[in-house]
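Narrative progress, year one. The postdoctoral researcher (J.K.) led the effort to move from monomer predictions toward full complexes, under supervision of the PI. The following entry was the first complex the group processed end to end, covering 233 residues in total.
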Amino acid sequence: QVQLQESGPGLVSPSQTLSLTCSVSGGSVSSGGFYWSWIRQHPGKGLEWIGYMYDSERTYYNPSLQNRVSISADASEIQFSLKLTSVTAADTAVYYCARGRDFGDYEGEVGFDYWGQGTLVTVSS
Amino acid sequence: EIVMTQSPATLSVSPGERVTLSCRARETIRNNLAWYQQKPGQAPRLLIYGASTRATGIPARFSGSGSGTEFTLTISSLQSEDFAIYYCQQYNNWPPYTFGQGTRLEIK
């Protein structure tokens, strides 16, 4: 059974960098076939896919965030991280890490089968 | 970016009733659609993928159908634990993967 757990600061100052880590148990971020993902949810709102890494180093990001986001694996292979630069109040959200899997006929047709519990990050001075 | 539209925004139903939730894609996504359930303070839970395949451990009262641009999630007999928000997600045209805005099921 795969479990994911987010960790990181709950408060970030405007213009700073938001950094979160996801710890994976029951699996490895270096194992093939999975997409280690970050998804966020603004307060009282819907879900927004941020991006993912797969094959240990390949990444895809939401075009709306591409200039500010990076996702990478930790050398331990049981953690991966999110960095979001130049944050504003609009980045206040619950951030989830999740595991993606190919559910379609082609690579990249991904749904999310395991999720962390989420962590609230507030951007405020 | 493919916009996903769910309707209605809120549905008031009684336990034991059958309910159908709708999700529409602005352009065809074949059957590349997933449904999630989210309860307050919890992460989303995968219910359905491939528009109609139940995820592991999901009760048979949940069923999905549709292809192209029109999709439905049906709960055959609502249980108390089913009152939650339901989201659809397309994974046909990416990036980005996109979600609907959600349908809230509340107790009548």
